């Protein structure tokens, strides 16, 4: 039998071969094993015996030694494979990345979309460079260039400025108020739907709570008034959201505070500023409206109160009908009024928000 040729290796190469054999995976470790068998353990064995131990052919053993003799440790690595050239080469990649980053499909032309999708990118590459690629290839190419699929985030534009007089008046009322003569209330309304809202919950591993939707969008509206000094909330449930319902709610508030000046802080919703509502304020001088600027939800603490309420009443909840939803909502307000629920409100933080809000002269 033909004896195998054993190359001369240094002590450093021997240690490196052992390390490669133990730590590396795949064919690199496999080739290092062949070299070690021939050099250290079995110097008198034939090629056929080495091949039998490593479950390979005789030619494979010859190839491993030939590459090792030529390139030493580097010879253990795989050769560069000859395959189909990349469809998206540098001539296409650079301008395409710049286009995807700086322009929308609508700006490019012939597209109505406001954002790029994989299919749109495939179509654009085909039309401009006459290259046919798959959406999966585009996805892989984008990931190789450091891109990822993400979701856009809502971000409010610059909020509208406050009237300097309104800012001064409301901050003064927030700091000091004569409760025997006047009251400060933040007004807003919110819709409560029969369909539940999915939310996170703790449960046994592998379980998922189902929140069934009826698909009919049944709802009722709740008008609310929040007192920042006492944290009390006054509410009225109604079927609609309009000027007439607002006036009925204000009459209810008026009965709560007879003989007092009622300062109302509210946004500029259409039924808050309608002619009917304006006439109501003129006829009832005990109401003093203070209107919030556009995008001024942070100035109104009852906005967060509605989130707090829905997180308890409707989050991951299933209701059979509107009557049950109404009953649970009434229970929520009763629990809140009896201090069994705590709404985390800090009046001092609200004052700071009002003080730092942009104003007009």
Model description:
The protein is of the alpha/beta class and 361 residues long. The chain folds into 3 domains: 11-76; 90-144; 162-360, Nucleotidyltransferase, domain 5 (2-Layer Sandwich), CATH 3.30.420.10. The protein has 14 helices and 7 strands. The protein has a 5-stranded mixed sheet with strand order 4-3-2-5-6, with helices on both faces. The chain has a two-stranded parallel ribbon with strand order 1-7. Helix 11 (275-283) links the parallel strand 5 (261-266) and strand 6. Helix 9 runs antiparallel to helix 14. It starts with 10 loop residues before the first helix and ends with a strand. The model has no long low-confidence stretch (mean pLDDT 85).
What labels describe this entry?
11% strand, Nucleotidyltransferase, domain 5, 361 residues, two-stranded parallel ribbon, 14 helices, elongated
Strand order of the largest sheet: 4-3-2-5-6
Beta-strand segment tally: 7
Domains (count)? 3
User: What is the CATH superfamily classification of the largest domain?
Assistant: Ribonuclease H-like superfamily/Ribonuclease H
What average pLDDT do the residues reach? 85
Distance between the termini: 103 Å
Summarize the structure.
With 361 residues, the chain is an alpha/beta fold. Helices cover 45% and strands 11% of the residues.
């Amino acid at each position: 039998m033909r004896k195998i040729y054993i190359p001369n290796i240094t002590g450093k190469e021997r240690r490196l071969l052992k390390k490669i054999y133990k730590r590396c995976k795949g064919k690199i470790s496999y080739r290092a094993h062949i070299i070690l068998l021939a050099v250290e353990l079995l110097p008198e064995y034939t090629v056929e015996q080495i091949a039998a131990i490593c479950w390979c052919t005789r030619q494979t053993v010859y190839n491993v030694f030939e590459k090792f003799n030529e390139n030493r440790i580097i010879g253990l690595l795989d050769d560069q494979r000859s395959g189909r050239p990349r469809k998206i080469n540098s001539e296409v990649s650079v301008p395409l990345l710049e286009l995807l980053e700086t322009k929308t499909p609508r700006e490019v032309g012939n597209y109505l979309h406001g954002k790029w999708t994989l299919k749109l990118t495939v179509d654009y590459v085909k039309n401009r460079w006459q290259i046919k690629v798959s959406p999966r290839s585009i996805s892989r190419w984008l990931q190789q260039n450091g891109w990822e699929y993400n979701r856009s985030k809502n971000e409010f534009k610059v909020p509208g400025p406050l009237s300097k007089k309104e800012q001064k008046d409301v901050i003064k009322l927030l700091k000091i108020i004569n409760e025997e003569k006047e009251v400060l209330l933040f007004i807003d309304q919110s819709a409560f739907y029969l369909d539940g809202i999915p939310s996170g919950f703790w449960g046994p591993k592998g379980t998922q709570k189902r929140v069934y939707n009826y698909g009919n969008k049944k709802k009722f509206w709740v008008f609310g008034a929040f007192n920042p000094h006492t944290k009390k909330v006054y509410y009225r449930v109604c079927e609609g959201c309009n000027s007439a319902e607002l006036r009925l709610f204000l009459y209810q508030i008026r009965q709560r505070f007879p003989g007092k000046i009622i300062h109302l802080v509210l946004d500029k919703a259409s039924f808050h500023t309608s002619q009917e509502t304006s006439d109501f304020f003129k006829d009832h001088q005990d109401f003093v409206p203070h209107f919030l600027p556009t995008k001024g939800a942070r100035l109104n603490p009852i906005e967060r109160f509605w989130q707090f309420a829905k997180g308890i009443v409707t989050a991951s909840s299933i209701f059979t009908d509107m009557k049950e939803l109404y009953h649970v909502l009434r229970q929520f307000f009763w629990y809140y009024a009896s201090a069994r629920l705590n709404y985390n409100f800090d009046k001092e933080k609200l004052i700071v928000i009002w003080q730092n809000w942009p104003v007009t002269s």
